[in-house]
Structure formats: structure tokens, C-alpha cells
Amino acid sequence: MIWEDIDIHAKEWVKEAGDRIRLSFEKTLNIETKSNPNDLVTNIDKEIEQFFIHKIRSVYPDHKIMGEEGFGDELKSLDGVVWLIDPIDGTMNFIHQQRNFAISIGVYENGVGQIGLIYDVVHNELYHAIRGKGAYLNENPLPLLKETSVKESIIALNATWVMENHRIDHNLMIPLVRDARGTRSYGTAALEMVFVATGRVDAYLSMRLSPWDFAAGAVIIEELGGIVTNLEGEKLNFLSKGSLFTAKPGLHQQILRDYLKKEQ
Ligand code: 2AM
Ligand code: CA
Question: 100: Cβ below 6 Å to ligand 1?
Fold first, then answer.
């Protein structure tokens, strides 16, 4: 497999999709809800996913596609080459703010991440990595991540997880929020992962994300020496929804040991 060739195509398609999204700002969005009243989708999410699927199928007919909006394949395994696509990560931000959203594309082979692309459309910033070849913001290489500790860190997480909720004991979250230097919440897993990759935040955790939310980010962060697991510190599963915990080295171990694994 020549990953550089796939990467060149993917970048070209991501940029073209970005142009389409920018043009959509001038038109009226058609907004629908999915699993609940706050789970939103627009005609643009659907159009962009279909755009990618059309492009991928025309050049790589044997590749498989897992897309958030369901126009790809029904996958039961990650065998072969699989594209994991979120046409717009941060749809609520896209609708309400016209910023703080991104296109997220991971290309995996037999379950191993080979290419990660996250495009911050509004800022024209493309974060990308090919496994073993470094990670970049546009043409500029990103430096490796350095170790840090909770008391010097900014942690990205949604306030929902610090309130009583049915996914995690919020009493585990309260000391972490108290001990960290600060917390942030951006409402887009892909960009929050980019912020870990660039050191703008030191860790990001979420209790429930889908494979297309973190597939690209995982490749980029791991390329820079960051750690990407679920909340239990285990390898991610790219076939089902689950939790995500990513952080700089050192910090990841500290949070797992001193906060997430504490006796209750
Ligand atoms: P989306 O905008 O592509 O849906 C918001 O905190 C982050 O969580 C976004 O990355 C968002 O992705 C994702 N998200 C929102 N609702 C979700 C759900 N029901 N399941 C999984 N991920 C979700
Ligand atoms: Ca989405």
C-alpha cells in the first residue's frame, strides 16, 4: 500500500470539501435531529459524506468506508483498508457558530491507523499524519509532546461528565477538575484531539464517542508520542462507540493511576 498516494488524494478531497462547506455558509441549512433533540445533522453533513464516498469509490473501489451519516458500508470487521469519516465533527457548533468544527478522516489497515487528517475549515488549518512519518499543521512539522503533570495541565472535557451522569461516577471527575490548572470544552472531539496534539491542551476525555470522532486524532496524537486509550486505559475499539482518554505522556499515567482508578 502506498500511503503517500492515498494521503495526496485525501488531502485534495478534504480541501475541496472545505470549499463546499464554506460556500454553504451563504445558504440556508436544513437541520434535522437524530437520536435525540440535541443530536443534529444537516444537509451539508450528508452531502459532504456522500462527496467523500463518491471520490474514494472512484479511485479505491476495494477500500471500505465507515461514515457517521451511514452512506458508507456496514462494517463487521476492520479487515483491509477502511476509511473512517466524520464529514462535520462538531455539527452543533457548525450550526450555531459557523466555527469550531472540522472534517475528520482516518485511514486504517487491518485496524491499524495509517493516515489521520483533521481539517479546521474556517481557519484553513489541515492537521495530518502518516504513521511513522511525523505529524504536520499544513506544511509545518509538529514537535513531539513533552511530559507534564495534572497541576500544570489544561484538561478538555465536557461539563456533563462533572455532573451526575450515567456513564461515569462524577465523584472521580471532581478532584481532577479541582487539581488541574484549568479546563476547557470545545464541543468537537476532532479539534480537541488536535489541541492535545499541538499542546494547546494537555489531555482530553470523553465518555462516549464514535470511531469516526477519534480515528484521525488517534493517528496524529500517537505520531507525536501522546497516549490514546479509553477511560480504562485500554486500546481503543474502532468498531463501536466508547470512551476516549488522550493525554501527554506522564500525564496519562498520572490521571489513570491517581484519579480514574481510585477506590470508590
Ligand atoms: P459530532 O458533532 O460529529 O456529532 C461533542 O462533545 C462531540 O461529541 C463532537 O465531537 C460530536 O461529534 C460528538 N458527539 C455528539 N453526540 C454524540 C453521540 N450521541 N455519540 C457519539 N458522539 C457524539
Ligand atoms: Ca459529525
Answer: no
**pLDDT tens, position by position, 213-224:** 999 999 999 999
CATH of span 150-263: 3.40.190.80
Instruction: Indicate the domain borders of the chain.
Output: 3-141, 150-263
Domain at 3-141: CATH code: 3.30.540.10
b/e string for 115-144 if b means 16 or more Cβ within 10 A? bbbbbbbbeeebbbbbbeeebbbeeeebee
Ligand 1 atom, smallest distance to 86 CA: 3
90 lines ligand 1 (CB under 6 A): yes
Whether the full predicted model's pTM is greater than 0.85, yes or no, is yes
Does any ligand 1 atom lie closer than 6 A to the CB of residue 91? yes
Nearest atom within ligand 1 for CA of residue 101: 2
